[in-house]
Design goal:
24% helix; five-stranded parallel beta sheet; alpha/beta; globular
Length: 266
């Protein structure tokens, strides 16, 4: 059996309980060594075999899986974040299916959520954006023509851009060409949730200079959109006094909530 497991964004305590259990029970772990925090492997069994997929080809990864299966062993294929985002897992699953090897998937906390947590940010602020666009610049891996940065920028929705920290000059130019203004809020979050995490607030117009000045060239997310500023948004209707739900009757309009006063007790 092969278990594809999302390692989460980096912090060892942000892996799921299921993912941690599977690692502790595994006979073989193949992990993305260039991105996954090795601290996640500390609870593995003493005789667990560990392979770093950063140094392997797809064929080599598959051969390890097949050998483990032939020996009746359980394999964990540990991917950064959530395997469903830029995880290159489908090609591995296709090979396993062809070989008749059973597998399953355990989701992980994506770095896009760790980046939001780092900034205490809500991607879906009413009146500003109710969508989150997850994309990347094309590099050695192409991007479909219809999914170009300019096309997505025209929506002016919240955007999270992966695998593009080393191309911020080109990225900024394409965001501007697509419709974002130079003053559109943006942020760079480097290694979200890791001890060495860094975060920088900027704008689309200053994005490239910020990345250059701070020495950011990889392992960072770019967040773009009005939601990054976290102001001038509309409040959620869900908690409005005049908004009726299946659990609460409408009670009429209310003013701005006032925090309760705390009494000093000596």
């Amino acid at each position: 059996m092969v278990h594809f497991v999302g390692a989460g964004p980096g912090a060892p305590d942000l892996i799921t309980l299921r993912g941690d259990r599977l690692i502790r029970e595994a006979d073989v772990v193949i992990y993305a060594g260039s991105l996954v925090n090795p601290a996640l492997l500390e609870g593995r069994k003493a005789d667990c075999a560990v392979y770093n997929s950063a140094e392997m080809t797809l064929t080599q990864v598959f051969q390890v899986m097949c050998q483990a299966e032939a020996e009746g062993k359980t394999t964990v294929r540990l991917h950064t974040g959530d395997p469903s985002l830029y995880g290159a897992v489908r090609e591995q699953m296709d090979l396993l299916e062809t070989a008749g090897i059973a597998y399953d998937s355990t989701p992980g906390v994506s770095s896009l959520f760790a980046a939001a947590a780092s900034l205490n940010l809500e991607y879906t602020l009413p009146g500003q954006s109710q969508s989150v666009i997850i994309t990347r610049m094309e590099g050695r891996t192409s991007v479909p023509e219809a999914e170009g940065i300019e096309s997505f920028a025209s929506h002016r929705a919240a955007m999270v851009i992966f695998l593009s920290a080393g191309m911020t000059d080109q990225l900024a130019a394409r965001l501007l060409a697509g419709g974002y203004g130079e003053d559109t809020p943006a942020a760079i979050v480097y290694k979200a949730s890791w001890p060495e995490e860094k975060r920088f607030l900027c704008t689309v117009g200053t994005l490239a200079d910020t990345a250059r000045d701070k020495g950011i060239t990889r392992t960072a997310l770019i967040l773009v959109g009005d939601v990054v500023a976290q102001k001038d948004y509309a409040r959620s209707r869900l908690y409005a006094a005049e908004f009726e739900t299946a659990y609460r009757k409408a009670t009429g309009a209310e003013g701005n909530p006032v925090p309760p006063r705390r009494e000093n007790k000596e």
